[in-house]
Inverse folding.
């Protein structure tokens, strides 16, 4: 363990109490039991190394690296502390310590989301915002993820990038660009070459995320013997768990557009679709799901259709209306 603090002679003469340089090696930040999610004292950051310099009113983070649970964290860049408001008392050391510990507790509560990820690593680059803190540009990587956020899927190598503002008491937007080589859900479906952009609002109170919008594209989606090429989806998540989404995809060499309005808690939905179905695809679907009817519906040309379906509570089928031009 090593702590090094440097004060310039001229800083002392000028009466500035702030160190000119701080270095840490092999440090550990322990979260006290009253603030720990487990109720016992536990390490929040381990094996931390820090090189922090103060120059001309700016904080320069030359190096930071450490481990937060299974996460390898690195950071560098520049940031500024909130400007002092005239007529108010500056924060005391006790108040700063209290705020830092409260933030550490909120951060620790979010660490459970990293448990499904294998070898996660987060790199932060800080860009100063005068008087308010900094913009953090982040890069998150992981070898894989098994059932992330409680979803029964497995992700291949994952990369996410984004930017978020640190500092201030108001909520702030977070846009994440995510890519995964593949997504698997057992025998139900698989997705290759997933690309997505997620818009969130991050709560300054507890660091929780509220979804707003998702833009998703993939190379291919395979499900129940069918393969959709180049699907794209735009989902409005502002009223989550209610969502509204539009999608377009190529299925059997023909294009299909769809719109979905769903309520996830009630497990209800309305689905509308228009497009064309190829003769081979229609034959494959009928043979798989209604083999007795398949011989009566044989087409030589693509079939144009429009459909409107309603699913009741529990995703139970309620109604279907459709028009077919063969």
């Amino acid at each position: 363990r090593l702590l090094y603090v440097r004060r310039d002679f001229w800083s002392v003469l000028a009466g500035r109490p702030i160190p000119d340089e701080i270095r840490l090696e092999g440090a550990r930040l322990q979260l006290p039991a009253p603030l720990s999610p487990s109720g016992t004292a536990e390490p929040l950051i381990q094996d931390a190394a820090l090189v922090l310099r103060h120059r001309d009113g700016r904080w320069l983070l030359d190096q930071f690296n450490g481990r937060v649970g299974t996460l390898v964290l690195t950071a560098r860049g520049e940031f500024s502390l909130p400007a002092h408001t005239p007529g108010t008392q500056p924060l005391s050391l006790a108040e700063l310590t209290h705020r830092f510990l409260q933030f550490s507790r909120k951060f620790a509560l979010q660490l459970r989301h990293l448990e499904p990820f294998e070898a996660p690593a987060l790199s932060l680059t800080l860009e100063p915002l005068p008087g308010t803190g900094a913009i953090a540009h982040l890069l998150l990587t992981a070898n894989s993820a098994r059932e992330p956020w409680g979803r029964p899927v497995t992700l291949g190598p994952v990369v996410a990038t984004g930017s978020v503002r640190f500092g201030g008491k108001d909520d702030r937007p977070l846009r994440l660009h995510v890519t995964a080589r593949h997504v698997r859900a057992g025998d139900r479906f698989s997705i290759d070459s997933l690309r997505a952009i997620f818009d969130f609002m991050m709560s300054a109170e507890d660091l929780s995320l509220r979804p707003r919008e998702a833009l998703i594209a993939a190379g291919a989606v395979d499900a129940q013997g069918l393969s959709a090429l180049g699907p794209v989806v735009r989902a409005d998540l502002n009223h989550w768990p209610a969502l509204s989404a539009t999608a377009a995809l190529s299925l059997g060499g023909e294009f299909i557009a769809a719109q979905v309005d769903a309520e996830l808690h009630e497990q209800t939905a309305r689905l509308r679709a228009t497009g064309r179905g190829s003769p081979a695809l229609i034959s494959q679907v009928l043979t798989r799901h209604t083999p007795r009817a398949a011989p009566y519906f044989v087409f030589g040309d693509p079939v144009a259709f429009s459909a409107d379906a309603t699913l009741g509570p529990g995703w139970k089928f309620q109604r279907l209306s459709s028009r077919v031009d063969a």
